[in-house]
Amino acid sequence: MNMDEFELKIKTTDELTNQELLTIMQERVKVFVVEQDCPYQEIDLQDNDATHVFLMDGAKLVAYTRIIEHSDGEHVSFGRVLVVKEYRRLHLGRKIVAATLAELRVNHAGRAIKIAGQSYLQAFYHSFGFKNVSDVYLEDGIPHVDMVLDN
Protein backbone atom coordinates (compact mmCIF):
# COMPACT_ATOMS: atom_id res chain seq x y z
CA MET A 1 0.00 0.00 0.00
CA ASN A 2 1.40 3.39 -1.02
CA MET A 3 1.59 5.82 1.92
CA ASP A 4 1.09 8.77 -0.43
CA GLU A 5 -2.44 7.53 -1.12
CA PHE A 6 -3.60 8.73 2.30
CA GLU A 7 -4.98 12.25 2.64
CA LEU A 8 -4.07 14.21 5.78
CA LYS A 9 -6.85 16.39 7.20
CA ILE A 10 -6.62 18.81 10.11
CA LYS A 11 -9.88 20.38 11.28
CA THR A 12 -11.44 21.87 14.37
CA THR A 13 -14.60 20.22 15.64
CA ASP A 14 -16.67 23.03 14.10
CA GLU A 15 -15.01 22.47 10.70
CA LEU A 16 -15.75 18.74 10.56
CA THR A 17 -18.57 17.60 8.33
CA ASN A 18 -21.32 15.61 10.02
CA GLN A 19 -20.03 12.45 8.32
CA GLU A 20 -16.41 13.08 9.40
CA LEU A 21 -17.52 13.63 13.00
CA LEU A 22 -19.62 10.45 13.03
CA THR A 23 -16.82 8.41 11.46
CA ILE A 24 -14.26 9.68 13.97
CA MET A 25 -16.53 8.98 16.95
CA GLN A 26 -17.43 5.51 15.66
CA GLU A 27 -13.76 4.55 15.24
CA ARG A 28 -12.76 5.99 18.61
CA VAL A 29 -15.50 4.05 20.41
CA LYS A 30 -14.59 0.90 18.46
CA VAL A 31 -10.92 1.12 19.52
CA PHE A 32 -10.99 2.67 23.00
CA VAL A 33 -14.23 1.21 24.37
CA VAL A 34 -14.92 -2.03 22.48
CA GLU A 35 -11.44 -3.33 21.53
CA GLN A 36 -9.88 -2.32 24.83
CA ASP A 37 -12.93 -3.49 26.80
CA CYS A 38 -12.93 -0.21 28.70
CA PRO A 39 -16.32 1.37 29.38
CA TYR A 40 -15.80 5.09 29.93
CA GLN A 41 -17.04 8.44 28.59
CA GLU A 42 -14.99 8.31 25.38
CA ILE A 43 -16.67 11.31 23.76
CA ASP A 44 -16.14 14.14 26.23
CA LEU A 45 -16.30 17.91 26.63
CA GLN A 46 -12.76 18.29 25.28
CA ASP A 47 -14.12 17.34 21.86
CA ASN A 48 -16.00 20.66 21.74
CA ASP A 49 -12.80 22.65 21.15
CA ALA A 50 -10.43 19.98 19.82
CA THR A 51 -8.41 19.93 16.64
CA HIS A 52 -8.67 16.61 14.83
CA VAL A 53 -5.76 15.25 12.81
CA PHE A 54 -6.65 12.31 10.61
CA LEU A 55 -5.62 10.26 7.62
CA MET A 56 -8.17 9.18 5.05
CA ASP A 57 -8.00 6.40 2.48
CA GLY A 58 -10.64 7.73 0.12
CA ALA A 59 -13.77 7.96 2.27
CA LYS A 60 -12.34 5.68 5.01
CA LEU A 61 -10.71 6.98 8.18
CA VAL A 62 -7.44 5.07 8.76
CA ALA A 63 -5.62 6.97 11.54
CA TYR A 64 -6.51 9.72 13.99
CA THR A 65 -5.40 11.96 16.88
CA ARG A 66 -7.03 14.78 18.79
CA ILE A 67 -5.21 17.95 19.91
CA ILE A 68 -6.35 19.67 23.11
CA GLU A 69 -5.34 23.14 24.26
CA HIS A 70 -5.06 23.54 28.00
CA SER A 71 -6.25 26.61 29.85
CA ASP A 72 -2.92 26.99 31.69
CA GLY A 73 -1.42 28.35 28.46
CA GLU A 74 1.79 26.46 29.14
CA HIS A 75 1.16 23.19 27.40
CA VAL A 76 -0.92 21.42 24.79
CA SER A 77 -1.62 17.74 24.44
CA PHE A 78 -2.84 15.17 22.02
CA GLY A 79 -4.41 11.81 22.50
CA ARG A 80 -6.95 9.32 21.25
CA VAL A 81 -4.21 8.12 18.89
CA LEU A 82 -5.59 5.29 16.81
CA VAL A 83 -5.02 3.31 13.65
CA VAL A 84 -8.01 1.42 12.27
CA LYS A 85 -7.49 -2.32 12.76
CA GLU A 86 -7.14 -3.34 9.10
CA TYR A 87 -4.51 -0.60 8.54
CA ARG A 88 -2.22 -1.50 11.44
CA ARG A 89 1.37 -2.56 10.81
CA LEU A 90 1.71 0.03 8.02
CA HIS A 91 3.48 2.52 10.32
CA LEU A 92 0.48 4.84 10.22
CA GLY A 93 0.78 5.41 13.98
CA ARG A 94 4.18 6.98 13.34
CA LYS A 95 2.79 8.98 10.42
CA ILE A 96 -0.21 10.37 12.34
CA VAL A 97 1.89 11.30 15.40
CA ALA A 98 4.49 13.00 13.17
CA ALA A 99 1.71 14.98 11.45
CA THR A 100 0.26 15.93 14.84
CA LEU A 101 3.65 17.11 16.13
CA ALA A 102 4.17 19.13 12.93
CA GLU A 103 0.79 20.82 13.48
CA LEU A 104 1.71 21.58 17.10
CA ARG A 105 5.07 23.08 16.05
CA VAL A 106 3.28 25.43 13.65
CA ASN A 107 0.33 26.52 15.79
CA HIS A 108 1.66 26.05 19.33
CA ALA A 109 5.39 26.78 19.04
CA GLY A 110 7.13 27.19 22.37
CA ARG A 111 4.51 25.32 24.38
CA ALA A 112 5.43 21.97 25.90
CA ILE A 113 3.50 18.97 24.65
CA LYS A 114 2.25 16.77 27.49
CA ILE A 115 0.55 13.45 26.86
CA ALA A 116 -0.80 10.54 28.89
CA GLY A 117 0.34 7.56 26.82
CA GLN A 118 -0.45 3.94 27.36
CA SER A 119 2.62 2.55 29.10
CA TYR A 120 3.26 -0.19 26.52
CA LEU A 121 3.86 2.59 23.95
CA GLN A 122 6.64 4.34 25.89
CA ALA A 123 9.40 3.35 23.45
CA PHE A 124 7.26 4.56 20.54
CA TYR A 125 6.78 8.00 22.12
CA HIS A 126 10.40 8.15 23.30
CA SER A 127 11.42 7.78 19.63
CA PHE A 128 9.80 11.20 19.03
CA GLY A 129 11.73 12.72 21.97
CA PHE A 130 9.11 12.42 24.72
CA LYS A 131 10.39 11.91 28.26
CA ASN A 132 8.52 10.31 31.15
CA VAL A 133 7.43 12.71 33.90
CA SER A 134 5.40 10.27 36.02
CA ASP A 135 5.38 6.73 37.19
CA VAL A 136 3.00 4.29 35.53
CA TYR A 137 -0.57 4.71 36.81
CA LEU A 138 -3.96 3.26 35.96
CA GLU A 139 -6.41 5.34 33.95
CA ASP A 140 -9.71 3.57 33.37
CA GLY A 141 -7.95 0.33 34.29
CA ILE A 142 -5.22 0.74 31.63
CA PRO A 143 -1.56 1.47 32.57
CA HIS A 144 -0.52 4.97 31.44
CA VAL A 145 2.45 7.26 31.93
CA ASP A 146 2.68 11.05 31.56
CA MET A 147 5.27 12.24 29.05
CA VAL A 148 6.49 15.66 27.91
CA LEU A 149 8.16 16.91 24.74
CA ASP A 150 9.62 20.40 24.53
CA ASN A 151 8.24 22.16 21.46
Describe this structure in words.
Pfam families: Acetyltransf_10 (PF13673). The model has no long low-confidence stretch (mean pLDDT 92). This protein is α+β, with helices and mostly antiparallel strands. The protein has a domain at 7-109: Aminopeptidase. Helices cover 26% and strands 34% of the residues. Strands 1, 2, 3, 4, 5, 6, 7 and 8 form an eight-stranded mixed sheet that branches. It contains three helices and eight strands, in the order βαβββαβαβββ.
Tell me briefly what this model is.
This protein has 151 residues and is an alpha+beta fold.
How would you spell out the order of helices and strands? EHEEEHEHEEE
What coarse outline follows from CA principal-axis ratios? Answer: globular
Write down the Rg: 15 Å
CATH class of the domain at 7-109: Alpha Beta
**Mean pLDDT metric:** 92
Span of the ends, CA to CA: 32 Å
Unreliable spans are none
Number of helical stretches of at least 4 residues = 3
- What is the CATH architecture descriptor of the domain at 7-109? 3-Layer(aba) Sandwich
Content of β-strand? 25-35%
Mind telling me the CATH superfamily name of the domain at 7-109? Gcn5-related N-acetyltransferase (GNAT)
How does the helix and strand content classify structurally?
alpha+beta
> Fraction of residues in helices?
25-40%
β-strand number: 8
Describe the sheet with the most strands.
Answer: 8 strands, mixed
Chart the SSEs and their pairings.
Elements: E1 7-12, H1 18-35, E2 51-57, E3 60-69, E4 75-83, H2 92-107, E5 112-118, H3 122-126, E6 131-132, E7 137-139, E8 142-149
Parallel strand pairs: 4-5
Antiparallel strand pairs: 1-2, 2-3, 3-4, 5-8, 6-8, 7-8
Domain N-acetyltransferase: 11-151
Keywords: Transferase
Protein name: GCN5 family N-acetyltransferase
